Amino acid sequence: MLTKEELAGKSATELAVLCQRIADNPSDYYTSIANDAKALKLEWVRLQTSPNPDYEKQKTIEAEKLALKTRMVEFLASTL
Predict the structure, then answer these.
(1) Residues 6 or more apart in contact with residue 37 via CB below 8 angstroms
(2) What local confidence, expressed as pLDDT, does residue 1 receive?
(3) Which of 11, 19, 33, 70 is 20 to 30 A from 48 (CA-CA)?
(4) What pLDDT is attached to residue 34?
(5) What is the domain extent for residue 16?
(6) How far apart are alpha carbons 34 and 75 in whole angstroms?
(7) What confidence score (pLDDT) does residue 67 get?
(8) How many Å apart are CA 41 and CA 24, to the nearest integer?
């Protein structure tokens, strides 16, 4: 079992992979947990874009990525 600190040290990509593993194994978790994991992974996929030439838009995207990483860490820490 990974600690919250260990999860925080992982990249967003690694966290998304862990979420996908949970989503792929709903029999190991409650369905709602698997669905939450899938939603986090899909949000991560949505944010994987080329850098936006508009600096303000890019700052917004980066803030969304950071917030998502924080939510994934919290979710995984309580799930794993």
Answers:
(1) 19, 20, 22, 23, 29, 75, 79
(2) 82
(3) 33
(4) 96
(5) 4-79
(6) 11
(7) 98
(8) 11
Tokens 């939603």 label which residue? 39
The span from the CA of 50 to the CA of 30, in Å, is 35
pLDDT along the chain (80 residues), means of 10: 96 98 93 97 97 97 98 97
**DSSP of 13-67, one letter per residue?**
HHHHHHHHHHHH-GGGS-HHHHHHHHHHHHHHHHT--PPPSSHHHHHHHHHHHHH
Which residue type occupies 45?
Answer: V
Cβ–Cβ < 8 Å for 19, 38 = yes
Total number of domains in the chain: 1
Question: Using an 8 Å Cβ cutoff, are 65 and 40 in contact?
Answer: no
* Nearest by Cα to 14 from 74, 77, 69: 69
Separation of alpha carbons 74 and 62, rounded Å? 19
